[in-house]
Amino acid sequence: MIRTELLTKKFGNERGIFDLGLEVPDGAIYGFVGHNGAGKTTAIKILCGLLKPDSGRAFIGDLEVKPSNTAKIKRMVGYMPDITGVYDQMSVWEFLDFYGAAFKIAPRERKRRIEEVLALAGASEMIDYQVASLSRGMRQKVGLAKTLIHDPAVLILDEPAGGLDPNARIEMRRAIAGLRKLGKTILLSSHILPELASICDVVGILNKGRLLAQGTVREISSRIQENLSIRLVVDSDPRQALALLGRVEGVENAVLADVNEINITFTSGREMAASLLRLLMENGVAVRWFAENEVDLENVFLNITGNASSGEETQK
Ligand SMILES: Nc1ncnc2c1ncn2[C@@H]1O[C@H](COP(=O)(O)OP(=O)(O)O)[C@@H](O)[C@H]1O
Ligand SMILES: [Mg+2]
Q1: Predicted local confidence at residue 313, as pLDDT
Q2: 89-106 pLDDT per residue, tens
Q3: What is the CA radius of gyration of the chain?
Q4: Which atom of ligand 1 is the closest one to the Cα of 39?
Q5: Average pLDDT, the chain
Q6: Which of 43, 125, 279, 309 is most enclosed, with most CB atoms within 10 A?
Q7: Domains and CATH numbers, the chain
Q8: Is 37 in the pocket of ligand 1 (CB under 6 A)?
Q9: Smallest CA separation from ligand 1 atom 2, residue
Q10: Predicted local distance difference test score (pLDDT) of residue 246
């Protein structure tokens, strides 16, 4: 639904984006992750037709992003900038009504629409608030509502949780996750990776303007992670399970993590999990829980981008 081909925009030597090939499947929630200064906003602005690339192409659906398609792209895309411009001397209602009018939504339809998008953004109670009185978290919600007003198929949200306190972040995340049921394609950026893990289907990791990895979290991590880890909980004597596991070639480590809980790490690829489980069952171990440990997204990110400080700019 969103696609770029060799997209490049240079601001001097090592700044900008280089040969970006983003691919966001239809209906996916795509997490666009990278340190401050990685180039997320630059890529997003190009996708929204607000910045001209030096070379390469960008597409929203079948439409190429170029001046002659601007009007169509604006209809298709809801864009929430990293810094939402707000019109302080208005109520939330007036603010949304203004945007509804700009998209030529008929006045009667507009009223219904405003209520709908405020509900989607979790901001229904703010309808009569003055924009000037809103907290940053509230503003972001109203910004999200604005982004939805013309019912675009694609949402592009630049750091929607940026600058929010933990509670507001959770609420914003919940609102975005709720949009999934509308079938929209959503690209959202963040410099905080774990934040995206729970709601994204696909992640693209950007570092110094280059896309280092793209895919599901699991795909990305299995490429870089040599050790897989499994959590095993038994209802029988864990020492028996430990002894069995200790004899298997490829099992790097099997340690007691709790009274009846064992952590297994192994190097021989994911297929090995099934044979470990079979071995345990065949030897009479009462397995209550056997599951691959959730991938630690933070580690994946650090692994791919080198270390936390590389490419980071202290802009904030
Ligand atoms: N208009 C501009 N002129 C010069 N440099 C810019 C401009 N916009 C962005 N940059 C530089 O390009 C890089 C990427 O910026 P940006 O896309 O805003 O990153 P992010 O959104 O990931 O924090 C940074 O080094 C930034 O300083
Ligand atoms: Mg940015």
Answers
A1: 40
A2: 899 999 999 999 999 999
A3: 24
A4: 17
A5: 88
A6: 43
A7: 2-217 (3.40.50.300), 226-294 (3.30.70.100)
A8: yes
A9: 11
A10: 92
Q: Are 159 and 143 in contact (CB under 8 A)?
A: no
**38-64 average pLDDT score:** 96
Nearest to 228 by CA among 293, 279, 172: 293
SS3 per-residue string spanning the chain: CEEEEEEEEECCCCCEEEEECCEECCCCEEEEECCCCCCHHHHHHHHCCCCCCCEEEEEECCEECCHHHHHHHHHHEEEECCCCCCCCCCEHHHHHHHHHHHCCCCHHHHHHHHHHHHHHCCCHHHCCCEHHHCCHHHHHHHHHHHHHCCCCCEEEECCCCCCCCHHHHHHHHHHHHHHHHHCCEEEEEECCHHHHHCCCCEEEEEECCEEEEEECHHHHHHHHCCCEEEEEEECCCHHHHHHHHHCCCCEEEEEEEECCEEEEEECCCCCHHHHHHHHHHHCCCCEEEEEECCCCHHHHHHHHHCCCCCCCCCCC
pLDDT classification of 271: cutoffs 50, 70, 90? confident
**Residue minimizing CA distance to atom 14 of ligand 1:** 39
- Model confidence at 162, pLDDT cuts 50, 70, 90, reads confident
- Averaged pLDDT for residues 251-268: 88
In the reported structure, the alpha carbon of residue 36 is separated from the centroid of ligand 1 by a whole-number distance in angstroms of 9
